[in-house]
């Protein structure tokens, strides 16, 4: 790596300042209320789906196991960044420790990678169910379903481990202000005392592979699904297949669109405001809408939620 020995006279950074949204106190209070509401709704919506799927034995099938895993992931994904954002809205210092910054960086990127992989697995599941319906029960068994979910989580948490460790070893000697809402590689590279082009290239290459690789896999899967759906003789079957696939593609478009803008174009200089908006889009907006897009349009999920609410009323 192109990292020279730092001068011993440098005063190394022990904490960073997450600048977030620099605005008047009244606006920050309003943003705090808005973000807190979004966070609460995200936890409630995804938590309700998990409980409904857990309580209804009829939904213990691969499609809904993947959906439950996805909702569980979304809860942790949004929790890796939003609580710190909320604290910073009410704080004048807006500081985050060096270790805390890199832990947030690691969990945010690891959970995001896991989400990319899980979306690809869910597309593969729909491809098998629609294009190979007779073989689907024998291929997508409960054992395989569990293995695929575990592989997504393990690979997701290993994917960015090396570049994050390398970035954490770089010397940061000030300034320590990160003009962002989260600890992100772009601002961290800018704050380093020395340049590390190889580490930067590795980070953006891994981002490109996981984003474009999974996106192209999803696109290919749904191209085959669309071809199979158009050949269906039943209009009801076509409508049901389009509804399921349309929901998934809507989530994929929201999530991958903002990711591609941020992490696959290191040569483009995005404004700080654009970076913050794009990050909020895939870190908060997508997890909020996922329960509505995926599940509340689904009759089985609606029935399971009614049953769950009915049990609470009885209790």
TrEMBL record:
It is found in: Cell membrane. One of its GO terms (molecular function) is G protein-coupled receptor activity. The keyword Disulfide bond applies. InterPro entries: GPCR_Rhodpsn, GPCR_Rhodpsn_7TM, Olfact_rcpt, Olfactory_GPCR1. Keywords: Cell membrane, Disulfide bond, G-protein coupled receptor, Glycoprotein, Membrane, Olfaction, Receptor, Sensory transduction, Transducer, Transmembrane, Transmembrane helix. It is a multi-pass membrane protein. One of its GO terms (cellular component) is plasma membrane. It holds the Pfam family 7tm_4. It comes from the Eukaryota. Its main location: membrane. The chain crosses the membrane at residues 30-54, 61-77, 97-124, 144-166, 209-230, 242-265, 277-296. The keyword Membrane applies. Residues 45-294 form the G-protein coupled receptors family 1 profile domain. Belongs to the G-protein coupled receptor 1 family. Putative odorant or sperm cell receptor. This is Olfactory receptor. It comes from Odocoileus virginianus.
């Amino acid at each position: 790596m192109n990292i020279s020995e730092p001068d011993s006279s440098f005063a190394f950074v022990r904490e960073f300042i997450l600048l977030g949204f620099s605005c008047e106190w009244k606006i920050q209070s309003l943003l705090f209320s808005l973000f807190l509401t979004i966070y609460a709704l995200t936890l409630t919506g995804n938590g309700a789906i998990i409980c409904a799927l857990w309580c209804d034995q009829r939904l213990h099938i691969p499609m809904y196991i993947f959906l439950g895993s996805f909702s569980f992931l979304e809860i942790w994904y949004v929790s890796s960044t939003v609580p710190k954002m909320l604290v910073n809205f009410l704080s004048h210092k807006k500081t985050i420790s060096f270790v805390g910054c890199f832990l947030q960086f690691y969990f945010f990127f690891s959970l995001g990678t896991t989400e990319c992989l899980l979306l690809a697995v869910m597309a593969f599941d729909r491809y098998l169910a629609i294009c190979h319906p007779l073989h689907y029960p024998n291929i997508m068994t409960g054992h395989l379903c569990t293995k695929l979910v575990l592989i997504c989580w393990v690979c997701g948490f290993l994917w960015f481990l090396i570049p994050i460790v390398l970035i954490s070893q770089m010397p940061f000697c000030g300034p320590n202000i990160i003009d962002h809402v989260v600890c992100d590689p772009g601002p961290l590279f800018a704050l380093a005392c020395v340049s590390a082009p190889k580490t930067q290239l590795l980070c953006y290459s891994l981002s490109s592979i996981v984003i474009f690789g999974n996106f192209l896999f999803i696109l290919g899967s749904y191209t085959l699904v669309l071809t199979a759906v158009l050949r269906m003789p039943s209009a009801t079957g076509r409508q049901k297949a389009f509804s399921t696939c349309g929901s998934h593609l809507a989530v994929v478009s929201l999530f991958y669109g903002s990711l591609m803008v941020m992490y696959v174009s290191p040569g483009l200089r995005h404004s700080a405001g654009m970076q913050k908006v794009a990050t909020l889009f895939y870190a908060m907006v997508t997890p909020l809408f996922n329960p509505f897009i995926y599940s509340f349009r689904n009759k089985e999920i609606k029935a399971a939620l009614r049953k769950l609410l009915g049990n609470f009323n009885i209790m």
